[in-house]
Amino acid sequence: xxxxxxxxxxxxxxxxxxxxxxxxxxxxxxxxxxxxxxxxxxxxxxxxxxxxxxxxxxxxxxxxxxxxxxxxxxxxxxxxxxxxxxxxxxxxxxxxxxxxxxxxxxxxxxxxxxxxxxxxxxxxxxxxxxxxxxxxxxxxxxxxxxxxxxxxxxxxxxxxxxxxxxxxxxxxxxxxxxxxxxxxxxxxxxxxxxxxxxxxxxxxxxxxxxxxxxxxxxxxxxxxxxxxxxxxxxxxxxxxxxxxxxxxxxxxxxxxxxxxxxxxxxxxxxxxxxxxxxxxxxxxxxxxxxxxxxxxxxxxxxxxxxxxxxxxxxxxxxxxxxxxxxxxxxxxxxxxxxxxxxxxxxxxxxxxxxxxxxxxxxxxxxxxxxxxxxxxxxxxxxxxxxxxxxxxxxxxxxxxxxxxxxxxxxxxxxxxxxxxxxxxxxxxxxxxxxxxxxxxxxxxxxxxxxxxxxxxxxxxxxxxxxxxxxxxxxxxxxxxxxxxxxxxxxxxxxxxxxxxxxxxxxxxxxxxxxxxxxxxxxxxxxxxxxxxxxxxxxxxxxxxxxxxxxxxxxxxxxxxxxxxxxxxxxxxxxxxxxxxxxxxxxxxxxxxxxxxxxxxxxxxxxxxxxxxxxxxxxxxxxxxxxxxxxxxxxxxxxxxxxxxxxxxxxxxxxxxxxxxxxxxxxxxxxxxxxxxxxxxxxxxxxxxxxxxxxxxxxxxxxxxxxxxxxxxxxxxxxxxxxxxxxxxxxxxxxxxxxxxxxxxxxxxxxxxxxxxxxx
Length: 759
Ligand SMILES: *[C@@H]1O[C@H](CO)[C@@H](O)[C@H](O)[C@H]1NC(C)=O
Ligand SMILES: *[C@@H]1O[C@H](CO)[C@@H](O)[C@H](O)[C@H]1NC(C)=O
Ligand SMILES: *[C@@H]1O[C@H](CO)[C@@H](O)[C@H](O)[C@H]1NC(C)=O
Ligand SMILES: *[C@@H]1O[C@H](CO)[C@@H](O)[C@H](O)[C@H]1NC(C)=O
Hints:
This protein is an alpha+beta fold. Helix content is about 25%, strand content about 20%.
């Protein structure tokens, strides 16, 4: 047995500082003020506490019933430690005998455990006992403050007051009338001396499965009993705050001091409650408030982020990871996704791989990836022909983890691309039971978590959602839903706190799964402490196209740039980079990658309807082309709009740099096309002006490799460019000054892509 007299804080003389100095010190450090002085202060405080303790009159003991050390329980203990409470836990590790606890973590079982415990303290009229639930409770003020408030209330026993009359609403008429909105007894939190609590518990017997709240309610509603036992309800939320139904009155505020710590505020009564209870359906609201309260963060810093962390380098061997990869729908840029998996800076011999690919389209991508996976500890692949459902696959991933005695399970869907090579390590080191790295569709409000739930249990925008998404608030956030990518510690897998996917097998698997996690009380955290990667958007991905990624500039710009924009292009935008001029006023710079050139050619050749080179051209508004080429317009292959975006977001930047003083945003171009030159078709083009303010001319393949001859000659300037490079573009004035011709291709095929900008 624990010696109850041992610790404990209490009603101390006013000069006695309460012993949260460790916490304050941490806050000061977080606010950037590291002071030697603090150590001296801490020492003085310690002495102060030692002195004060001797003068204590009323000790406070917190008693709670908890059968499992859930995340909620650990959060409760953390807040208790932080604010100087001493906690006695009843029933830990024992089977729960209190019946269905869905709505209230209740049951006569709690009363019976408490009664047994209080037998040893039935004559104690000095020690104050605070009885509270724990899974959905946090302390929000110090033990000293709480005791002071209790003594001021001049009651023997004080119960939480709540908004709803439960479990028997017909009793509501029997309650005494009061001002304020919380009129009814809630048994999730009460406080009194040992003697008075024991007296209350022994009025009559209760079965383990009976409702404890009803038991206390009946005592309270009997006026004689209420009087004898000295029971009051905390109508003004001096001590207890039951959240359900009062969400609108309960605020989180930051103190206006240097530390900017958050505290709980009840706006109905202008009080600062000490115990916050997410009773009823308020669990998710409590979870989001707890992201701020109990020293979890200050206005500027996440304090909880550095708690419980470890360094993998300090471990004897790296933890074993089961990595589950799920391709459940056609996903753009899958080769890049796999490349980033391979680039994860974590020893592959400690990673077991499980892959589920439901899409025949991605079969080759998976096969290409498997060429590089020999150093992983093991690999299991379920391809599209294995015909297992998404739910089965996800359950299988978890079973694989357990059968490999994994320490962590990382589930990654193909939309979640991990650009951070240290992601695995960084996630593990944060040491949370279930942690999702925050991933966002770049520039969109779409992410892999929800900040809040609607009444129907679907997405709802939380107040802080936007700030978390744009990283103006960083931290580890307890949220009601995560998906797409998350890491689970294997101890929670083993303890059954993570539901299986098997039972679902219906639409919206992710939503159902997140709900069952909430029901089990397993916290879902999302971290934006680091940047881990982003979500690709599969919505407009059309695998019936020959090179579908090529069409993804608008919807997946980051991936598109990574695959298609030349790595040296970024530097071209720099005002200090001089752009080459192989001929006067003809600029030449790297723009797109070989993959771009390759895909452009493939798309055009697949389409195949090259113009016949005649002057009459139905594709043109006037129906006539003075200087015809063999070509295909971007419009004909569904790329006109994307090409306008390309001109605006890439070409314009260089144009404004080289043709100083010419602004035209967005650039307009009616003629965007790929030209094919070859000896047996059209080898060259006679001298002409372009119908443009300026023209871009991108080489799509290389001389001496793909063809001989070719190039562009500017007649007035008497200057030719024949050493063109695939992916580099020429940019030159169109009409008037740059009369030019296409030089003959003597063998092979030459492809160029042309835009007449601002005709
Ligand atoms: C608590 O743990 C027991 C096993 O110790 C388990 O059977 C039970 O489901 C757990 N309850 C919760 C709420 O996780
Ligand atoms: C990880 O966190 C748990 C609490 O959730 C703690 O008990 C454990 O010691 C931590 N692990 C390490 C390696 O620090
Ligand atoms: C071009 O495409 C072909 C397949 O059509 C492929 O074999 C080749 O590797 C690609 N080259 C580049 C640079 O993407
Ligand atoms: C054009 O340039 C070539 C050399 O590049 C030179 O031989 C020739 O004389 C030039 N012609 C004119 C008209 O300047």
